[in-house]
Each structure stands twice: as C-alpha cells, then as structure tokens.
Amino acid sequence: MLKYSEYKYKRIDLDDFKNKAIHLIKNFNSLSSAEQQIKYIKKLEQIMGEWSTYASIASLEYSRDTFSKKNKEENEFYDNIQPEMQEISSQYADALLKSPFRYDLEEEFGVHIFNLKEIEGKTFKPRIKNLLRKESDLCNKYTELISSAQIDFRGNKYNLTGLGSFHSDADRTTRKESYQARFDFFEENSDKLDSIYDELVKVRTKIAHDLGYKNYIELGYNKLSRTDYDDRDVALFRQQIVDHVVPITTKLNNQRKKILGLDHLYFYDSINFKEGDPKPKGSINHLISEAQIMYRELSNETGDFFDMMVNEELMDLENRKGKAGGGFCTAFPTYERPYIFANFNGTDHDVTVLTHEAGHAFQVYSSRHQPLQDYYWPTLEACEIHSMSMEFLTWPWMDKFFKGETERFKYLHMAKSLSFLPYGACVDHFQHWVYENYNATPQERKEQWLRLEKIYLPHRDYGDINYPKTGGIWQGQLHIYQMPFYYIDYTLAQTCAFQFWDKFNKDREHAWKEYFNLCKAGGSMPFTKLLNVANLRSPFKSGTLQEVVSEISMWLDNINVENLTLENNKK
Ligand code: ZN
Fold first, then answer.
1. Which of 120, 173, 328, 520 has the fewest beta carbons closer than 10 A?
2. 0.85 cut: is pTM over it?
C-alpha cells in the first residue's frame, strides 16, 4: 500500500516525451490493423497518464503550499508545457479521426471519444500557444493575489478563507464587519482585479478570433467538451430558474426573516439562525473517523473507498497559511488514486465540502478501469452530479457530525442548495454578456452585473458596504476568472442532485445502484446520455426544473421553522 507521500515525482523530459508521443502518433495511420492501432492507443494513454500524474502532483503541491518557491516553480513548469501537451493531444486527435479502422475503434472504445476529439480539434492550433500561456499566467496572478490576502480583523490576521468563518457568525456586527474587511481587501486591489480580468477577456477573445470564432462563447463551450448542447439550451434553463426558483427564494427569505426575527435582510445576514449556523462537532480527525463509519454503512463500495483515502493519506483538509483557497479533487492516473483538498474552517461547509469532494473522488476511482484518459472524468456538469448528489445521499448520517443540530443543518443545506440556482445562473449569464461584449470596460461589466443581480437575486441588499454595491462582488468568484462558463454546471448538476435526493428518500437501495452505475460510466458518454444511465430527467427539458423544485418546495413548506431554534433542538 503506497501512501501519497511515497509517490514518485519528477519533471518529465519534454523532448523525450514529445519524441515518444509523436513517434506513436506519426506511425499510427500506417498501421495495418485495428488491433495494432488499439495497441498504440494504449501505449499513448500510458505515457500521457504519466505526464498527467506528475502535473497533478505539481499542481496539488503548489496548492498545499503556495509560499514554497520550489512548488511554485514545479507548477509553473507544468503550466508552461501545457500548450505543448495540448499540441500533442491535438495531433493524437487528428490521427484518431483519420483512422481507417474507426468502426473497430468505436467497438473497442465507444463513439464518444470521436465526438470528444472532433470538438477538441476545434479548440487548438499551434499558433495560439503563446496566447494560452498568457492566459494561464493571468489565472495564476489571480490565485496569487487572492491567496496573498492578510486581513487584519479584530487584532488577528486572516486569509480570505479564515475570515470566512466570521461571515456566518451569530452576531450581526461581527458578520457585517468581517464582510467589510473582506471587501476592503477587494477595494484596495480593485485596479489589479479589474486589469487581470480585462486582460483575460481580451486574450480569450483573441484566441477565439484566431481560431475563427465570432467570440469566446462557442469556443468556451467546446473547451468544456459540451458535445450535446449549446448556449441556447443553457439560456432556456436559466429562464426556468428565473420562472420557478426565484419565487421560491422569496419564500425562503420570508422564512429566514421569521427565524432571525429581522424585518429586513441585508447581504451580511447570510445566516439562517439567530444562534448562528450549525457547526460540526469535534476535531478534523474525529470528523474523518465519523465519515469512515458513514461510508462503510452507505455501501461496501464507499466503505472500501473511504478507508483507502484515509489509509493512503489522500486528503489534506486543514486550513493553513499559504495554502490555496477552496476545495477540489484531483487524481493520479498512474496510481489509480484520487486526492481531496479542502480548507476546513469550523463551519457546516466543512462537512459538505468533504462529502462533495468525496463524491468526485469516488466517481473517478470507480471509473479507473475505463480504457481512455478522456473517460476518467465526464464533462464538468456531469462530474458535479456525483459530488452534489453525494452531499444528499449522506443525509441519513448527518447526525454523526451535527448531533442536536442535524435538522438545522438539513434545512440550511437545502435552502442554500436551492438559493444557489439563481446565483449560479447569474454568474453564467454575466459571463455570456462579458464575452459577447468583449470591448466593454471594467466599469460597464460592474454595471451589467448589477442589472443581472436584479433579475436573479432581487432580494440582495448590500446596505452601506460599498464594493459589492458598485458591482464588484463577482471578483471573488474564481470561476469567473479561471474557468469561463463552468459555473452553470453546478446548477445543471444541482437539478440532478435534487432528483437523487428524492429517489434516495423513496428507495435507498435502488437509488444507490443508479448512482454507482453513473459513477462507473465515468466520461464514456456526454452529459445528456449519462442522465439516461441514472434515470435522471434532463434539466434542458422544459418542465423538469419545475417538477424537481416543487418536491423541494413541499419539503420546505413542511418545515416548522419554530422547531429549528437551538433551544427546541437540544434533545
Ligand atoms: Zn465539485
């Protein structure tokens, strides 16, 4: 049993790697049989898996300690050779698409790989390599700026994640002042944040134009390998959110006012209970051992999986200085293992981030026998089904973490998940506007954000906190900088995760089987086909969202908010 710390890491020898890969690719179509081509594909997959393993380690180590000079250099090395890899990958795609044995290869690997390679071919030409490098540098600049934050708050210094725990404090003044401290940091760095984003929009648009696109939107979709839907489908979905979810958020807001005993809710009243949000009970180690019991009880598969994550030290969960923010899951193909990264800060989010990332990790682990790298992970909206559904599948065990506050947690989790849909759609709509109006100024972008907020988040009131009031709040949303058009994926997936919540309530065993089947299918199919594997209704179909949220709305109606106060919750 190998532990993560025992994994081998090195910089690959780029020339050697390229020689090997290009040799295989060049000779690919002079091979005289499908069997031989399959053998070559397997060899290519193996060496690309090695590269991807090293690159994952480099990136992870950098996230674990952004202060380390060595980590930064290793990560930059792999970032810098990314365009070279893309070039090789694009040559591989070309060769594959020209194969005279396509039918046999489809028999072996399925048709989806050809769809993926076709769409990939539309996202790269060697001449854009320098622009891609520039884009990746700008993304790193953003990460550095955000993680450099050392915010003075009530006599202590915090990074943004550390400061975050005060945002849901029971005391209104603490919440407000901690938000004020956060936005002071954004205000101080406003010029940098504006110019990084402006340059990103310009460089992405330039890439799009170089590749023959009208703007970055279609290219962005292609880069996300969306082979089965387009921006019109997404626009329709967003409209369903406006029609069917925004009205429920009004109801949620009224419930919250009642619970909090407030006449008016400001942005910084981002809590659901007077006494503060429920907090997980116990140390990180305690939470992990409770999670181990939970996953053994959920299923044999998750039990073995999570024990492996613990025993092989495949998680880094504590918040430290210098550690990059957020949570994510990555994987090392050579070792067939995933890794979970998070920043626990003592809030309920610690539990959801753990179950969320465990969902990702469980999927990629379940897909490890898929024959191609491209099939290890599905496209991102499908990936988020595994993670967000796992948050709900683990509901019956939430008392392990929240004890007497379990019902409060469930209400909060559901309310947050539902309220997230309009926010996610707003972020997505904003980005469509930005890339369509790529010559807009930073100021115009902020004004547009405020216009969209009125449609999707009509209840927001920032009070006298200036920075978000002038339309700058989205600059804290790293996806907008680093992963264009990714954000809607969370809302598409949430629509599916709600369905799993419902299925799991009705028939746990059957729902688990459907979930596991979905995980095993990995990325061997596009999003809408994967939905069929798990018997999920498509979010793009008019009516789906309305049906799904009506179940949730009923559940919310049955909540007696008076029972959610801490007094009544102590058993
Ligand atoms: Zn996720």
1. 173
2. yes
